[in-house]
Amino acid sequence: MTTNSRDVFGVPCWVNLTAPGLAEAEEFYGGVLGWTFRATRLGENFRVALLDGRPVASVGALAPRLGVPTAWTPYFAVDDAEVTSARVRERGATMAVGPLAFATGRAALAADPSGAVFGFWEGEVVQEWHAGQEDAAAWVELRTRDAFAAAVFYGEVLDWACERPGCCDVAYEDDHVVVRRGGQTVARIDAGAVENAPDPQVRPRWHVHFAVADLDGAVDRAVRRGGAAVTPVRSSPADRRVTLRDRTGALFTVSETVD
């Protein structure tokens, strides 16, 4: 089932891997995360990944054609892609690609003022898919230098904390920002001294998280398929997580709930 992006504006509505090719991505993520894949209405260069029949993400074999790096990117639902593009430019950020027309809507890629890449989507969204830390297919987290400045930028671009009914709420908790809709966490923004970090995974960027039942098993499967763990396992009272790199260079995080 689908709904329209205007009904969930400002919310992460999908995550996509921009990859060099489909076959390699399907083999890697199918083996590591147990995903299966099916064709979509977006054309032969796209596949939807499923876990137990439930849509999780998509893979687009578009990196060479668009001249963009291999990467996981969150997409946020918007009313009007042209209006959102103008807001991005007005705030000193960069429009990288689009808006481009597809069968079910329009998509664009942008980079915020710190360089973190994100997408936005106007059109049909998959109703069964939602982002959040509570029983969701995926959740997204921006790791950046200044969480407050980032929250202001995204709030103005995506209509967070506005007066419209249904908009996302923004709360400042400790040194991070929590974005919620209807009481459910849909995104986080974490601050940190990333400008001095030597490894690329800690530069300002949006990180896509996927839940797994067995964290150590997922790491082992990724390494055996040519991937790598780029952070140590981090533990909290709620979960254990680690950031991985697939064999084409895309970063993603897997997390295991702690009972």
Topology:
Blueprint: E1 2-4, E2 12-18, H1 22-33, E3 36-39, E4 46-51, E5 54-60, H2 63-66, E6 71-77, H3 81-90, E7 94-102, E8 105-111, E9 117-126, E10 139-144, H4 147-158, E11 169-173, E12 176-181, E13 184-191, E14 205-211, H5 215-224, E15 228-229, E16 234-235, E17 239-245, E18 251-257
Parallel strand pairs: 2-5, 6-9, 10-13, 14-18
Antiparallel strand pairs: 1-9, 2-6, 3-4, 4-5, 7-8, 8-9, 10-14, 11-12, 12-13, 15-17, 16-17, 17-18
Descriptive report:
It is built from five helices and 18 strands. Strand 12 and strand 13 form a beta hairpin. It has one domain (2-257): 2,3-Dihydroxybiphenyl 1,2-Dioxygenase, domain 1. The chain has helices spanning 22-33, 63-66, 81-90, 147-158, 215-224, and strands at residues 2-4, 12-18, 36-39, 46-51, 54-60, 71-77, 94-102, 105-111, 117-126, 139-144, 169-173, 176-181, 184-191, 205-211, 228-229, 234-235, 239-245, 251-257. The mean pLDDT is 86. Strands 1, 2, 3, 4, 5, 6, 7, 8 and 9 form a nine-stranded mixed sheet that branches. Strands 10, 11, 12, 13, 14, 15, 16, 17 and 18 form a nine-stranded mixed sheet that branches. The radius of gyration is 17 Å and the shape is globular. The chain has 259 residues and is α+β, with helices and mostly antiparallel strands.
Quaternary assembly: single chain
Count the beta strands: 18
- The pLDDT mean sits at 86
The tally of structural domains comes to: 1
| Overall 3D shape | globular
CA-to-CA gap between the ends?
32 Å
Parts with pLDDT < 50 across at least 5 consecutive residues? none
Based on helices, strands and strand pairing, what is the structural class?
Answer: alpha+beta
Task: Tell me what portion of residues adopts beta-strand conformation.
Answer: 35-45%
* SSE succession: EEHEEEHEHEEEEHEEEEHEEEE
Estimated helix fraction: 10-25%
The CATH homologous superfamily is termed 2,3-Dihydroxybiphenyl 1,2-Dioxygenase, domain 1
Number of helices: 5
Per the CATH scheme, the topology name is 2,3-Dihydroxybiphenyl 1,2-Dioxygenase, domain 1
CATH architecture: Roll
